[in-house]
Request: fold
Amino acid sequence: MKTKSKIKIKVKRVSEKKRKEKPTDESKLGFGQIFTDRFFTMKYKEGQGWYDAMIEPYHPIVLDPAAVCLHYGQLIFEGLKAYRGKDDSIYLFRPYENIRRMNASAERLCMPTVDPDVFFQGIKKLVLLEKDWIPRGIGTSLYIRPTMIATEAFLGVHPAVEYLLFVIVGPVGAYYPQGFSPTKIYVEEEYVRAVRGGIGYCKAAGNYAASLLASKKAEQKGYTQVLWLDAVERKYVEEVGTSNIFFFIDGELVTPPLAGSILPGVTRDSVLQIAKRWGVKVSERRLSVDEIQEAHASGKLKEVFASGTAAIVSPVGQIYYKGKEYLINGGKTGELTEKLYNEILQIQYGEKEDPFGWRIRISK
Ligand SMILES: *Cc1c(COP(=O)(O)O)cnc(C)c1O
Reply:
C-alpha cells in the first residue's frame, strides 16, 4: 500500500483579543466577505521545495513591490466548500479534484505543484480548527479558497523561484435562500474569455480580469451573466460567467467538451456522472448558438443551467442573442435542473447515500 505523505503543520495560537466575532445571522452571510481567525500558509523555494507549513492568525501578507505575481500574473486559485451535516459531521466534496486541478493550473503557469496528500492535510486541519465558523443551515457552508502566488522579487518575464501557497476560509450563505431564481444571460459576441492553447482551463487570476468588461456590459444591459462563445468562430457556446453550461435538448443533456478553453468544473463532472447514472443521455460535444436557436424554435430546448461550486446549479430563464430574447421553459426552473440540484446538495450534506464516494467526512 502506498503510504501517504505527511508533513508537520505548525499551528500558531490566535490570541483571545485577536479573535473575530462570529456572525450570528446566517441569512446575512453573503459570499466572500467574512474570513475566519486563521489561515494556512506554506512556502516554496526552488532547490528546497515546500517548507514551513503553518496555520497562523489571519493577517495581511507582505510582498515586495517587485513580486512576480503583481506584475506577470503567476497567481492561481481554487474554490471548494466544507459542509456541516445535520448530525454535526463536517464534509468535503471531492477535494482531491480541486487539488488536482490546482496542480494542473500550476503546471500551465510554470508554478510548483503540491503533494496532494499534504495539500489535503493542510485544508483539513484548517477547516477543523475553524469548525465553529461553519454555519448550520442547509445551503450554507465554509468556503475554502486555496491560492498560490509567485513571491520572488524580480522584474523579468521568467518563472519565479519563490512561491507562497495560502488557504483562507470563510462562512458563506445559502445561494437560494428564497428558492431558485432563473437568470438572464447575454451571448457575448465582441469579447472572448479564453482560447484553445491559452489558460482557459486554469483557475488563473488573469482569466477573471479578462472577463470583467464583458460582465459589466451584460450587467448594464440588465443580464446576470455572460454566455461565452468560442474565440475562433464565435459560434459555439463555452461557459456562462464563471460556471459551466448545460443544455437539455430533446432528452439529451449537452455540455461543451473540455478542449482547453473551458474550466473543467468539479460540479460539471458531478452533473455528468449523476445524469448518466439516472439513464439520461449525456453528451460532451460542441453546441452552436444556431443549434440552440433551432432547438428553441422547435420546442426541443427544455432546460438550460449553469454549474459551479457556489450555486451547484443555476437555472437560466432567458438568453439574449443578436437582439432577440429566448425564453427557456417559460422562465422557470426545469425539472432536471432542480433534481440535479437536490441530488448534489443532499450528497454534500450527508443526507443521501453517496454511490460515487465523493463525500469525505473529516469530523465525527
Ligand atoms: C470555478 C469555475 C467553474 C466551476 O468549477 P467548479 O469546480 O464546478 O466550481 C467553471 N468555470 C469557471 C471559469 C470557473 O472559474
Notes: Residues 79, 203, 239, 242-244, 263, 265-268, 307-309 surround pyridoxal-5'-phosphate (CB under 6 Å). The longest helix spans residues 205-220. The chain has a mean pLDDT of 96. Helices lie at 68-72, 95-108, 116-129, 205-220, 266-277, 289-297, 335-348.
